[in-house]
Design goal:
The complex is a heterotetramer, with two copies of chain A and two copies of chain B.
Chain A lengths: L1 E5 H15 L3 E5 L15 H9 E3 L4 H13 L3 E5 L10 H14 L9 E5 L15 H5 L5 E3 L4 H13 L4 E5 L7 E5 L14 E4 L4 E5 L2 H17 L3 E5 L2 E3 L3 H11 L2 E4 L7 H13 L9 E3 L13 H4 L3 H10 L2
Parallel strand pairs in A: 2-3, 2-4, 4-5, 5-7, 6-7, 10-11, 10-13, 13-14
Antiparallel strand pairs in A: 1-8, 6-12, 9-11
Chain B lengths: L14 H4 L3 H26 L14 H8 L7 E3 L5 H6 L4 H8 L33 H14 L6 E6 L6 H13 L3 E7 L2 E2 L2 E2 H4 L16 E6 L3 H18 L3 E6 L19 H10 L2 H12 L4 H24 L14 H4 L3 H4 L8
Parallel strand pairs in B: 1-2, 2-3, 3-7, 6-7
Antiparallel strand pairs in B: 4-5
Classes of the chains: A alpha/beta, B alpha/beta.
The complex binds thiamine diphosphate (2 copies) and magnesium ion (2 copies).
Chain lengths: 328, 358, 328, 358
């Protein structure tokens, strides 16, 4: 049996189950407790679990994330919310020097089982400093793991895997997905965990592979419908879900089937997850490519505010369709 | 803060306030009213879906921006956080370009690229409008450093919230300001809350937040933000200390916001009692306080106050119309204002690939 | 006439000339003045230019870099040293939110003519937190410019261009190059400036393109010698010099000539400049490629300390030669 | 600091010091001597090119690590910056694994992956060894938070330098420590300089650096770091405050380093006068002070002191031999200790690509 939940509810259910499973799991962040979370992901959890397990912090991201890292070395398992992933910039040293390197620099003596989670997306009119897409940025640091679920079920399954993982996992959500709905297995049917590192074909197809993660998956699915209905093109949509570890096998399998690739990535085009995926595809499936790998990224400028035009800066179904048609 | 004790001193008699002509006093009153009317219009059209992103209203805090900025001369500069409408209007920005910015239109002060949190007017010495909490505090330091470097006698007023004091960048700035003798005045606009978190739940302190300045051998003061005269009198001292002695100051101005943290904040009546909000509105509203004051002084009549109010509302409505009728940015506009060299089509901009679309 | 200078001297000469040219140029950073710089790049400049122009700062990277950004908006032109580029992590917000976005968010009203410079490299036994290679990281942010000179002449020519540029330029040097020598034009022969965005062929060749930047250029040149002498393979070495703007034309021209590509990039392999260059090559020169683009990056782990093995983690001539030979 | 005024109080009579047996006193003396001998050996082989990277010597500061760490119980934890050899030996790490780490050998405490700046021994409650200035200060907060969360009565001693106090992360940590009631003791090892910059040129302060704690309503104290008894007596109070009252403290321990910032620092006789260095060595050397003291107390003879010295030198020489003869890491070793899941070959490590070589 499964139920229809919002992405937000699914996440919350995952957090709640892990809080119940392991007394060392503690949620912390700005406004996560008494305020119920800026985006209400943690709604009701403070009331249920109390001050010890759900902790409001001052606006000191470097301070509280570093605190979580330190506590994790001692066996606590902090799940820390960045109200926006964009605020990584003020905690960057803790995120990439301490969390990513402490295991290595200690020759394996220290563990850092933390999760840092929060929304990472454009499209809500909050401008350049609040609209970062940092999956590729963090996946570049060996020692870190990164995932970005697109659906309620994936959000729940992956957050539970992230919390149980003994390495630092950076979990990228999306304010525009929080309200979207989807089927999520019933807890009564057993523990629902989706391992990191497993992509999923969200739509089978044979003509072209659209490879995406996060909300770009939803945009790719919408584009695939248009391609099918208006152009008779049968697009496969592969959802990476997890960026590091990365399901390279699934990527190559899809490419070898369709021989044509458009990567959809909300990142700015210099770099991003998509540049890396392109590198891997041309390296490992060179002879299967009918033509160059193409990408649909955000237009290369800081995020514009204007609600009239912001959606045009981001990958959207129109831009994806145009790109696929341009493959010729 | 609601608990701001009514001051025993009367700052109307401070020289800096005695120097005010009746016209100037009315102007300051008018500015506060214009901020409020502008924001009320913004709120209305935000709720109507015309404005995107966040809307952080300044209503309740007007005397801080108007009082402090009224002291600015040609070489005094200003920079603040995302709650920036009051400062923008106080430095002399027009309602039109501000409203159009919130509407995301080409005619906005930032061409619709910044939105409500990012108003700028360098020609009026106003440097934004910044979204990352306390991210502007080193910039304010830098503006003041720049003044000193360029040999201009002036200072920078850098505003931040009571929650922002817990960001590391602010502390780094304070140490440098004191060590280097930088003419910056940090103004903590203490409205008692950072989002849903009261000052007591976010900050450890002795006495008050401004007192943290002592850690860096910096002078500090606490000001009742509902009294425009007090704001001016005490801020003037800090600005003069900066301009003449090249010494920073931290001011904490007690104030209050009537609305939620932003208009998306549906909780603000949960973390604050209705009595607390009502008490401030009744007894500490900076516009009402100054209005009573000017009427008592005989500087302003009830009628004039009413006219000012009506005019401000009319001006705000006109700015809505201006914004509505202005053109939206185009797809091409997304790619401008990224690089100075590209915008100015310089030789440097012709060499190598700058943009990586397709 | 040209002279033989070290990379360090060439940089210093460039800084000195710009200090003389423009009274608004000010150098700041930790230990840059009285101590003459941790790596002696600024040696003698404080003595010559005094307290106003050469400024020692506390260990507060976010504070002093933000200060430089603020001052730059007012017309000052700060050139700020990060003792190591690795310390970007504690100033990240100022570097990527304020410097990169302030022009955009103000609709073009603010300028930010700053330079941030310092060494960014592995290979000196300073371990994971001091050995970052952040060219790709910063080039990913529209609004920023990035360059990484490999020779003394390029170091001088590019630092002068960077200081004159009206946008933020992040300038990546290398502690292992500071002592290397090369010809640098005599100032008497005129102002020597190398524009950003111009790659240079450091060695002509026809069999394979080795594309690199920074110290990897030196490693690629050494590999090219071995390839020539031991294997009769004639490698072209293209030095990108500037990462953003990027000389895409030069890259494609070389690829179209040799049809085979090995990218050499000291970055960790997930992302990096090389993933982006690979993306561009396969996109724009697909039909010219005889086989997949290959890379030699650092082995994918935080930087190891051990001097016995650190050089094996980095691209080195042996690894480059092996990769070229593996092209078949 | 050279100016550390010789204390009027005699801390030998503090209960925590009176409780010391003669054997334990000799052990503490021995620990300080061992640190010095170990580092002198390290210096020698660093100069011989056997050790890479940076070498930051602790010589001159030994009483700080030994005095404070001697107070630690089963639930007390320690974390410091890159100048970490003293702390490492004081918590009980062996010279062998420390020397081998500097040599970059597989037998090093961090398998040759961390080097001089990154010694770790979690089994001895020692959490490094951290290279980014003040980057360890939130981690120390977290270790103490963890103790409280897990219900263990203990504290964390987190060391930092006089230059490190100007990093934002430290201030964020102080605010949280005070606000949340975290049992952390910050120990500022004030050796007067951050690289070539004197305290006066890097920090603005009132009275002393520790006094900055007042900004956060945190207790603080200043300690003469040349007197092991004083270090113990005052640190004990702070640790008890942490353990029993869940309250943080900031301690500033005045000390001095004899060598440059690191051995690469060729300037250290330029920014400090030879007299300043000499004065410290003559009058404030923590080992000489404690040696005189123990001899005066009749606890130790000159002969025993000489033997301890010789034994420490012998032990250090043996550690060099151990390091020399140990195997270097292999290329394969580069790729371990990146992920816990991979090292433990768990199911999670089998799914998806974790490493991107070729
Ligand atoms: C670094 C960072 N963290 C968190 C936020 C989200 N945020 C925006 S405003 C705010 C509260 C700030 O409160 P305060 O400083 O008191 O200013 P006020 O809103 O009361 O004017 C928070 C948490 C942010 N913008 N930047
Ligand atoms: C964030 C950061 N900035 C700069 C450095 C370079 N650096 C290493 S140690 C040091 C001086 C620190 O002095 P202090 O805190 O007094 O400690 P001490 O070396 O005296 O023990 C500097 C500038 C660094 N490692 N990290
Ligand atoms: Mg506030
Ligand atoms: Mg020091």
């Amino acid at each position: 049996m499964s139920r229809i939940l919002t992405y937000r509810e699914a996440l919350r259910e995952g957090l709640d189950e892990e809080l119940a499973r392991d007394p060392n799991v503690v949620l912390m962040g700005e406004e996560v407790a008494q305020y119920n979370g800026a985006y209400k992901v943690t709604e009701g959890l403070w009331k249920k679990w109390g001050d010890k397990r759900i902790v409001d912090t001052p606006i000191s991201e470097a301070g509280f994330i570093g605190m979580g890292i330190g506590a994790s070395m001692l066996g606590v398992r902090p799940v820390m919310e960045l109200m926006f992933w964009s605020f990584h910039s003020v905690a960057f040293d803790q995120l990439v020097s301490n969390a990513a390197c402490v295991r290595y620099m200690s020759g394996g003596l220290c563990n850092c089982p933390i999760v840092v989670r929060g929304p990472a997306n454009g499209g809500t009119g909050v401008g350049a400093t609040h609209s970062h897409i940092p999956e590729g940025l963090f996946a570049a640091f060996p020692g870190l793991k990164v995932c970005a679920p697109a659906t309620p079920a994936d959000a729940k399954g992956l957050i539970k895997a992230a919390i149980r993982d003994n390495d630092p996992v950076y979990f990228m959500e999306n304010t525009l997905l929080y309200g979207t709905t989807g089927e999520v297995p019933d807890p009564a049917d057993g523990d629902f965990v989706i391992p990191l590192g497993l992509a999923e074909i969200k739509r089978e197809g044979s003509d072209v592979s659209l490879i995406a993660h996060g909300r770009s998956v939803i945009q790719a699915l919408a584009a695939a419908e248009i391609l099918k209905n208006d152009h008779g093109i049968d697009a496969e949509v592969l959802d990476l879900r997890s960026i590091r570890p990365l399901d390279q096998d699934a990527i190559l399998k899809s490419v070898m089937k369709t021989n044509r690739v458009v990567l959809v990535d909300e990142s700015k085009p210099f770099g991003g997850v998509s540049a890396m995926v392109a590198m891997l595809i041309q390296d490992h499936a060179f002879d299967y490519l009918d033509g160059p790998i193409k990408r649909v990224c955000s237009i290369d400028a800081p995020a514009i505010y204007s609600p009239h035009i912001e959606h045009e800066q981001l990958p959207n179904p129109r831009r994806i369709v145009e790109k696929v048609l341009s493959l010729g | 803060m609601t608990s701001a004790s009514s001051s025993a001193l009367d700052f109307a008699h401070s020289p800096i306030n005695q120097a005010l002509t009746p016209e100037r006093k009315i102007e300051l009153f008018t500015q506060m009213v214009r901020i409020r009317r502008f924001e009320q219009a913004g709120l209305k059209y935000y709720q109507a879906g015309k404005i995107g992103g966040f809307l952080h209203l300044y209503i309740g805090q007007e005397a801080v921006a108007v009082g402090t900025i009224s002291l600015g001369g040609a070489n005094d500069h200003f920079i603040t956080a995302y709650r920036d409408h009051g400062h923008a209007l106080a430095v002399g920005m027009g309602m039109n370009e501000c409203m159009a910015e919130m509407y995301g239109k080409q005619t906005g002060c930032s061409k619709g690229k910044g939105g409500s949190m990012h108003f700028f007017a360098p020609d009026k010495n106003f440097w934004g409008g910044h979204g990352i909490v306390a991210g502007q505090t080193p910039l304010g330091l830098g503006l003041a450093y720049g003044l000193k470097y360029l040999g201009r006698e002036g200072c920078c007023l850098c505003y931040l919230g009571d929650g922002a004091v817990n960001q590391g960048a602010f502390h780094e700035s304070l140490n440098i300001a004191s060590l280097f003798g930088i003419p910056v005045v940090y103004v903590i606009e203490n409205n008692g809350y950072s989002m849903g978190t009261s000052q007591e739940r976010s900050s450890a302190y002795n006495g008050c937040l401004a007192q943290r300045a002592e850690a860096y051998a910096i002078e500090w003061d606490v000001i009742d933000g509902s009294d425009l005269y007090e704001v001016r009198a005490k801020t003037h001292i800090a600005m003069e200390r900066a301009r003449k002695e090249m010494k920073p100051t931290v001011l904490e101005i007690d104030t209050y916001r009537y609305y939620g943290h932003s208009i998306a904040d549906a909780n603000h009546k949960k973390y604050r009692t209705p009595e607390e909000i009502e008490n401030y509105k009744q007894n500490h509203d900076p516009i009402a306080v100054f209005r009573r004051r000017l009427i008592a002084e005989g500087v302003m009549t009830e009628e004039l106050a009413t006219t000012i109010n009506k005019d401000a509302a009319t001006e705000a409505a006109a700015s809505v119309k201006f914004a509505e009728e202005s053109p939206a940015p185009t797809i091409a506009d997304i790619s401008t204002d990224v690089y100075w060299e590209s915008d100015n089509n310089t030789p440097a901009s012709q060499i190598g690939r700058h943009f990586f679309n397709d």
